[in-house]
Amino acid sequence: MAYLTLRGINKIYPNGFHAVHDFNMEIEKGEFIVFVGSSGCGKSTTLRMIAGLENISKGEFYIDGEKVNEKGPRERGVAMVFQSYALYPHMSVYDNLAFGLMLQGVDDDVIEKKVLSTAKILGLTDYLDRLPRELSGGQRQRVAVGRAIIRKVNIFLMDEPLSNLDAKQRVTMRSEITQIHRETGATTIYVTHDQTEAMTMADRIVVMKDGYIQQIGTPYDLYFNPVNMFVAGFIGEPPMNFIEAKVKKGRLALSESDIDLGAVADDDVLKQYEGSEIVFGFRPEAVKSDLGGSTKRAYHIKSFTNLVELLGDNTNVYVNFDGFSSILKVEPHHAPSIGSTFEFAIPFDSVYLFDKHTEKRIKLRKE
Ligand code: ADP
């Protein structure tokens, strides 16, 4: 059995709202797991059931082979960091870090050693005498993380810990938390609505929607092998472009033009979609603006340029074709000007096809 096992976990709140449906997952010791999804999809509810702060309506939760449904947070050996730092405002950083250990009756010299080593990991050594209000947001969040890691717990739970920080601090704390995880080795479950945090921090990501798991996988899996349109559209920034079209004799018919399905046209699976509508997906960064020889094995599209955003390392180009809007990521010196026609190519192997009705990925035999 894995270190953590969630089997058929459901949450039905007292008002009857079914917030989490049949959550099944196994987590190995030391993994960094991220739950990601839009607000209200059930991430925090699941985390709180793991913490023991919310009861499990149905299903079983095991830690190291032992069922812990009825156990409280302390008995489960978990520490949790919340979005609000929850620091004691009248206590110094030193005392905020030391407080939990003091309550446990740990000796003063042991406490001092632990506070100093935790402060060192978090870069707080020079701030131990300060009060929380004398710290920046990032430093306060570090104290909150420090309070959790000082206790040597086995399971570390974090609920949107970076959402009160500005963009720059978020990037710094992101790598600091990953570093702390590497140093402590604690099994970590981290909740966020931000796909970039999920992609950069996780060993494995759980994508949730409306209380259901959509997909569990490594960042690489989710980006390259999304199982449905939701995951494909959620992971990646800007999101994947989706074009609705009809399969007609090996071509993808749009309203004004059609796309030769080329290599995949005679695929047995795709043949079953003859005459029906499917969704054609491609990532903004997959397109090639240089229509030279290297793009022969590609779909060629002529579009109209609506907007161009220069970001520095690349450019987001907003285009229209056949009534659809798409965003393309293009190298700045290949970017078109607003109002011009823009021809681009999508390599065959970077196209995703989806069933329009189930929104599931159409897995072609040839893949
Ligand atoms: P997330 O963390 O993904 O934003 P939550 O787990 O907080 O989502 O909430 C999931 C759903 O459960 C939401 O629709 C929310 O309104 C609902 N919910 C949360 N807490 C309660 C509660 N105490 N009673 C009833 N519904 C709740």
Task: Kindly describe this structure.
This protein has 2 domains: 4-233, Rossmann fold (3-Layer(aba) Sandwich), CATH 3.40.50.300; 238-355, Nucleic acid-binding proteins (OB fold (Dihydrolipoamide Acetyltransferase, E2P)), CATH 2.40.50. 25% of the residues lie in helices and 32% in strands. It has 10 helices and 19 strands. It has helices spanning 43-51, 73-76, 93-103, 108-122, 137-149, 167-184, 195-201, 219-224, 229-234, 268-271, and strands at residues 4-12, 18-27, 32-36, 58-63, 66-67, 78-81, 155-159, 187-192, 204-209, 212-217, 241-248, 251-253, 258-260, 277-282, 298-310, 315-321, 324-330, 341-347, 351-355. β15 (298-310) and β16 form a beta hairpin. The chain is globular and about 75 Å long. The mean pLDDT is 90. Adenosine-5'-diphosphate binds next to α1.
